[in-house]
Amino acid sequence: MGDGILPGLVKGLGTTARSLTRRTHTAEYPDVAPALPPRSRGVIALTEENCTSCMLCARECPDWCIYIDSHKEELPPTTPGGRARQRNVLDRFAIDFSLCMYCGICIEACPFDALHWSPEFEYAETDIRDLLHEKDRLGAWMATVPPPPALDPGSVDPAEVTAAAKPPRGAAGAGPRAGSAPRAGAGAPGRTRGDGPAARPTRVRPESPAGSDRAAGSLQGASAAAPERPAADRAVDATKPMPALGDTGSPAAEGDSTQVLPEVTPDEEGRE
Amino acid sequence: MTTRDIVFVAVGVVTALSALLSVTTKHVVHAALWLLVSLGSLAGAYLVLGQELVGLVQLLVYVGAIVVLVLFALMLTRAPIGPHAEIDTPWWQRAAGAVLGAATTALLASLLLPLLSGATVDLDAPAATTPRIAQAVFGTWVWPFELLSVLLLVALVGAFAVSRLVLHREDPAADGAVRRAEGVRR
Amino acid sequence: MNLVLAPWLEVVLRALAVLVAFLVLPLLVGQTEHKVMAHMQGRLGPMYAGGFHGWAQLVADGVKFVQKEDITPARADRQVFRLAPFVALIPYLVALAVIPLSPKVVGATVDASVVLVLAVIGVGIIGTLMAGWASANKYSLLGAMRAAAQLVSYELPMVLAVASVALAAGTLSLVGIGNAWNPWWLLWQLPGAVVFLVSALAELQRPPFDMPLADSEIVFGAFTEYTGLRFAFFLLAEYAGIVVMSLLFAVLFLGGWHGPFEPWVGWVWTLLKGFLVAVVVIWLRVSWPRMREDQLQRLAWVWLVPMALFQLAITAVGVVVFPR
Ligand code: SF4
Ligand code: SF4
Question: C298 contacts in A (CB within 8 Å)?
Answer without folding.
Answer: 1
